């Protein structure tokens, strides 16, 4: 039975840990039992207040019919509203004091009152949590972790006040960070792993003239999405890149020389997170794609910032690092908060943040679910302050990532596209993020014709296992399920889950500059920054009119006021897990969402709101 939104966010370990958790997390191996006399810092992330009301709070500022539309909250208001209650703090504190017989000062409450930490011996932790602790080794040489993959148990009166305890069953690590690399399961540009073919510079002009079905340029995108845009407000927007995804200014200039001369010698403003540096050796594919598309579409009148998120420790989840940099209170509740996060709420917030990565499969797993639910709640809290998060929906169709992982009956994920249940991906399936699927121009078609879903790779889409369907998409999604969804065996996908993507944009074959030459590139990792650019342009118009940025846009996009703002994509599907996946259909579908944007209509619809 699917949980309500409030129950999902108030998910506790008591019903899920213990004997039910037995598998060692992928990428890790047991080395030995942990020394019972060694000490570990146990951290208890406390349940936040009012999370069951998060969706209603967001609808109050994001529903076009609300009298409070656009009246975003201040960070201080968000912090105060969701602060753990005194009862929660007292219950956990009293239990620890009684069980451990520790002095008051040894049980520490974080400054934001959302985490309790106590240093205990492994023997004490095992007794306290009824667990067995081991030392594990990761795939990166020298990467060791202490944890209890077999699960742990909290007393019932305590469990209702604790989201999760660390270190226990959660293992962040390299396999959670997906990027443009064959070993890290990217949800990014199709064809990159096999090596993109170079386009000789002297042939670029003739290739572009051959049509947008063979070479997608900025002019193609402008024509496809009615994107006639001259910036006025100079708003700030960002693209997020992670770890070794970097760009070269020379590649930007090569691209701008051909497609956007007024951006020559311009680069994005760097916002370094955990020491992230784009001027080091690394993969040029993703950052080049994202930055060239956004700067090319928006022009010099819009500021583009780059969150360059490093991963100084393999135990750090890049999602946590980005969220903590935006909201200092999240530093404490992150499950790996003691493992090196130093940028805590000290980075500037921008209006639109584009993310072309995935970090976790959306499956019910005690080692993952409470953490990703906490992360999704944080995206929602940031959206309350007026931020728009846009993310790629993935390139694996109804399977997870380009490794095509499908869920087996025993609860394991198996790669290679085996028969099994469909697997959504995060962060795209978080309801507080706008997920973007990929489309392409039909062979021989013009930009006056509606695109189809991509055939060069299956665009990601489906239904969440961790998050129920939100009210704002209920009618559109139910229409698809009732009239167009295939009749798969029960359990193949969660019909009551949050459905994604929300929208779509071109994902293949885009022309970008990379490594001193031009290449074909794409994937939903291109679709996300394209749509984010359109949202940024909408913000520009609203800010110039004296109105607020759009913030959380999903309720508006699904409303009647925006019915004509999308080009309905009705051709294509997203196969996976030895099925045809879902077919595109009139209205919303799990391949292309509501369709591709018509910028002018989207802008005018948002300008009509308060």
TrEMBL record:
It comes from the Eukaryota. CDD domains: Peptidases_S53, Pro-peptidase_S53. Ca(2+) binds at residues 568-569, 587, 589. Residues 1-19 form the signal peptide. Keywords: Calcium, Hydrolase, Metal-binding, Protease, Serine protease, Signal, Zymogen. It holds the Pfam family Pro-kuma_activ. The active site is at 286 (charge relay system), 290 (charge relay system), 525 (charge relay system). Binds 1 Ca(2+) ion per subunit. GO terms for cellular component: extracellular region. Its cofactor is Ca(2+). This is Subtilisin-like protein.
